[in-house]
Amino acid sequence: MNTQPDIQVVIEYLEDPENEQHKLALDKWLQQDAGHLDIFLEMRALWQGDVLPAISSYNTTRQWEQLETQLDAPQPLTVAPSTVTPVKKISPRYWWAAAAILLLVAGYTIFHQPAYLVKQTAQKQDSLLLPDGSMVYLNAHTSIRYPREFKTRHITIEKGEAFFDVAQKPDAPFSVNTDKVAIQVLGTSFNVKDDGRAVKVFVQTGKVSAAFKGSDNKVTLTPGVEAALATANQKIETRRPQKNNNILAWKTRQLVFEDSPLTAVAAALENCYHVEVVIRNEQLADKKLIASFRNLPLEEVLDIMEKTLQINISHKNDLVEIY
């Protein structure tokens, strides 16, 4: 949010509120952010020498309606005399008000910082070093939120998938929340994926506790174990995937298939390359693939699969079809 207004625009309007150009400039700035109205009201009170009320005491809706009416009010047309406009001497009050407004805006910027920060990814992956030294790796299409003051080590996954490498601080537990699942750790590395139907937690090192919020239904996970917490019925299923399970392939960019059925290959490709993979011929579902791919583009992977399994694959936009 841009909370640093153009001081000159605001002051020009306050000096000459009937000037149409000043009205337009102020209106444009007010439309940029909803928070600008609060700043303007405080500036106007300072300018007029009023005692500043708390922001919460403003009837923002009524003030906005009144200001819109004032800005939209037509003014009588006047013809300026054809004389040279004298240079206007700036009064000491102007400088006092400007200085007061600058202090006001600086204070607003400092004390109105958002309590939480948001990190989002679109098509590409990204990583984030947290203030406590922990690392977060975000898959594509992921959004997380965390406190600006990271005294309580708490992360919220709003959507998507993230891998956490948590710095060990026994006196400060690290927690990760999704919409319906809470995860507690002390120092470990683990993966969390919320696909809307279930929250999947896979532990690489350490120990993790995952529970449904407001419930005693929870599970403790050790290295190599994955839990799927179904949000619809609060059912928890755990499994120990094979060593080369490709759960972290989106992060490592390495896919390993050891006699893997094509259905498992399709699921791994979907998660790693963010495409939909459809097996059109059901007879191909049990075909087995032995191959490994390290940081290869999807087109190369599909080409190798075609030649190795002697199948047909088409790829258009985000859809891969196997037949």
From TrEMBL:
<feature type="domain" description="Protein FecR C-terminal">
    <location>
        <begin position="255"/>
        <end position="320"/>
    </location>
</feature>
<keyword id="KW-0472">Membrane</keyword>
<dbReference type="Pfam" id="PF16344">
    <property type="entry name" value="FecR_C"/>
</dbReference>
<dbReference type="Pfam" id="PF04773">
    <property type="entry name" value="FecR"/>
</dbReference>
<keyword id="KW-1133">Transmembrane helix</keyword>
<dbReference type="InterPro" id="IPR032508">
    <property type="entry name" value="FecR_C"/>
</dbReference>
<dbReference type="InterPro" id="IPR006860">
    <property type="entry name" value="FecR"/>
</dbReference>
<feature type="domain" description="FecR protein">
    <location>
        <begin position="123"/>
        <end position="208"/>
    </location>
</feature>
<dbReference type="InterPro" id="IPR012373">
    <property type="entry name" value="Ferrdict_sens_TM"/>
</dbReference>
<feature type="transmembrane region" description="Helical">
    <location>
        <begin position="94"/>
        <end position="111"/>
    </location>
</feature>
<keyword id="KW-0812">Transmembrane</keyword>
<protein>
    <submittedName>
        <fullName>FecR domain-containing protein</fullName>
    </submittedName>
</protein>
